[in-house]
Each structure stands twice: as C-alpha cells, then as structure tokens.
Amino acid sequence: MFRRVSFLWLFGALLIASCAPPGPRVLRVMTHDSFAVSEPVVSAFEAEHNLTVQFLSSGDAGEALNKAILSAGNPLADVFYGVDNTFLSRALTENIFEPYHSPLLAEIPDSFKLDPTDQALPVDYGDVCLNYDRAFFTEHNLQPPQRLEDLLEPEYRGLLVVENPASSSPGLAFLLATVGHFGPEGFLPYWEGLRQNDVLVVNDWGTAYNTEFSGSSGRGPRPIVVSYGSSPPFEVLYSAQPLEQPPTAAVVSDGSCFRQIEFVGILRGTHNRDLAEAWVDFMLSTTFQEDMPLQMYVFPVNPNARLDEMFTRTMAEPQHPAVVSPDDIAAHREAWIQAWTETVLQ
Predict the structure, then answer these.
(1) Which of 122, 173, 219, 233 would give a disulfide with 314, using CB separation of 3.0 to 4.6 Å?
(2) What string of H, E and C letters represents the secondary structure of the chain?
C-alpha cells in the first residue's frame, strides 16, 4: 500500500511539474564598469522575453576585453558590451564574437559600422574633447582655446590637465586625437610642447575632472581638461540650481576631438544564442537608445532615438573629429603609448 501511494504521489508531482510554466532563463551580459541602464527598461525586456538579465561588470574597457579574450569559446557571459574603436581590431583578431546581422542595423548610419562582418555592432558614441571653465576665462580676460595648437601658447601655461593614455580611456582617445590631427610624425613634438607648457597628467578622468579641473564639478586650479563633448550638457542637467547655459564648454574645432564608438557582440560559444540576439536588438532599439544618454553620458547611434531638449539646446558636436583607423590603432597603439610615456613622463 505504501509503495502504491508513493508511486501515485511521485507520478502526480511529475505531472504537475511537467505542466508548470518554465522558469525564466538567464541572460548574462558582460560590460565595462561605466555601463548603466535604468531599471524599468531592463525589467520591461525581461518581462517581454521571460528571462532574467545578469550584468557582469568586468573592469574598464581594456580589462573587460582581456577577460573576454581569455574565456573565448567558453565565455563568461552571452553578450559583451563596451569594446570601443580603440580596441576593436584586437577583439576581432582574437575571434571572441559570433556574427549577427541585426535587423536594427538598417536604421544605423554607415559611419558607425566599423566591422563589415557584423561581429561587433555599434551602440553609442561620445566625443573626447577639451573642456574649459567659462568663468575663468571671463575673469582673466583671456580667450578660451579654440584649437589644439593654442595650448602651446604661453598664456595657457599651467592651465591644462590630461589623463594618462596608459591607464585612461579618454586619455588614450585624446592621444589618438593628437595622432590624427598632427600625424604619426607630429604628435610627439606637440606633446613635448605641452610638457614644456606645464601640462598636468593624472591617472583617470575622475581625478582630472572632479579634482584638478576648476569647472563647476571640480574644485581644482586648472581651467582646461580632457573630458567629453557631452560634459557641458550634464553640468546643466545635474546642477543644484537652474542654469541658462553650461558653466563649461567643449572645444569642437576640426581635428580637436576623437570620437569613441562602443560596440556590442554575441560571445562565441554562448548557449543562449536566441536571447543574445534579442538583447543586441534591444540595445539598438529606440527604447534602449533613448535611455542611454542620461545613464552613460553617451549618445545613441540610432537617429530615430530622441534626445532630451537640454542636449539639443546646449550640445556642441564636432563636425570633423580626428580620425585614426582601427587597423592603425591596433598596429601602433602600444608603441604610441610608450613613446608618449617617454616624451611626457620621463
């Protein structure tokens, strides 16, 4: 009797389990540490696809890429977001991604599509530019810098703080801006001139902008900093008091900025290919693209995404940023950083 009851109980339990709806699957997304997305946006995606998204924060862009390379073919996650055009060629050479031609690519301008194999799909962009403190230049009756060359003039001595390209993404981007603007033979003499004009080098953007810069977010003595073209609008957005215009401004003359483009890709060896494709499509959709600017201080590559009115009113975008091809960056990045180190720090 006991055996018969036990068998009937087990059979019933199995029948109930087989009829119960399956639990949500898990999608793992590897990102750099600066990744952010609003919770309602992620929750809506999870509900639509009956899944749970787990974000794997993996250091800065270079560190995250190293982790993806070390686990290639047996990935730590299903999707990797955050590799930019300064490291794109390395990601493609190491074969960490599976190709995926998202239907949303049809909405993205060709200028952002740097990978013809569709392994790395563009998500966002941001321009690394010089920023300056408006009040300082007004109070000192000094013309703000308009070009990179201006920083070599004696009146700008001791006014500039930059990030080390060996340890900072915007620092590397600004180094590449000088390579693109002055050429491989001309950028080191330019940096030697900056060194003689008392440029200050720090390790990271936070120290440069929030500690050394004299703009409203910083308390330092230097009124010129390497930051982003999007920094002035965010000064308005996060100001404690309403502002008519940003207290800072970006230098966006031809060749003075470097455009960083960030990409997403499906990691080779994922067991959740269908979910990974859905996430990539989601990142290119207007829902995600419109959420991004206020989360990560970057701009959408999908032109159908609407920007907050504050951005369109206060943003100055470079029309002709400096250009260095991903192949040239891959071939010379380490040598350029080493040469910069020997010129500026030694």
Answers:
(1) 233
(2) CHHHHHHHHHHHHHHHHHHCCCCCEEEEEEECCCCCCCHHHHHHHHHHHCEEEEEEECCCHHHHHHHHHHCCCCCCCCEEEEEECCCHHHHHHCCCEECCCCHHHHHCCHHHCCCCCCCCEEEEEEEEEEEEEHHHHHHCCCCCCCCHHHHHCHHHCCCEEEECCCCCHHHHHHHHHHHHHHCCCCHHHHHHHHHHCCCEEECCHHHHHHHHECCCCCCCCECEEEEECCHHHHHHHCCCCCCCCCCEEECCCCCCCEEEEEEEEEECCCCCHHHHHHHHHHHHCHHHHHHCHHHHCCEECCCCCCCCHHHHHHCCCCCCCECCCHHHHHHHHHHHHHHHHHHHCC
pTM of the model: 0.81
Same domain, 186 and 326: yes
304-337: pLDDT as tens digits: 999 887 777 777 789 999 999 888 998 999 999 9
Domain of residue 106 covers 21-125+261-306
